[in-house]
């Protein structure tokens, strides 16, 4: 499957919309994925997406929800590292949707 970007180019995604090649990720790709999900990325989304990409660089995996919350609390403070904040930003599926938007593999424990 292909995800069409605003400039007319496209990137390959799997049937769930995750990037086939993680190197294809960029800000415009994240915007296109968000658009496909019916959402517009705001500064607070980008903060979590950058955090997730840092986590992936450090651990070579996409975190499940609990580790994501703990990592966000550690790096951004408790007001942003909590399930209510992350669920509000990412439609109740923070680990899965945020990983998709950040161009990372689906967390292994997500359905």
Written account of the structure:
The structure is a single chain. By secondary structure, the protein is mostly helical. Helices cover 49% and strands 5% of the residues. It is built from five helices and two strands. It has a two-stranded antiparallel sheet. Helix 2 packs across helix 3 (65-76). The longest helix is centred in the middle third of the chain and has 17 residues, at 43-59. It is globular and about 40 Å long. The two termini are 20 Å apart. The mean pLDDT is 93.
Distance between the termini: 20 Å
Global Rg: 13 Å
- Give, in spatial order, the strands making up the sheet with the most strands: 1-2
**Class from helix and strand fractions:** mainly alpha
> Number of helical runs?
5
For the secondary structure, the number of strands is: 2
SSE arrangement, N to C: EEHHHHH
Mean pLDDT value: 93
In short:
The protein is mainly alpha-helical and 111 residues long. It is built from 5 helices and 2 strands, in the order E-E-H-H-H-H-H.
How is the topology of this model organized?
Blueprint (H helix, E strand, L loop, with lengths): L1 E3 L5 E3 L14 H10 L6 H17 L5 H12 L6 H7 L4 H8 L10
Antiparallel strand pairs: 1-2
Helix pairs in contact: 2-3
Tag the structure with descriptive keywords.
single chain, 111 residues, mainly alpha
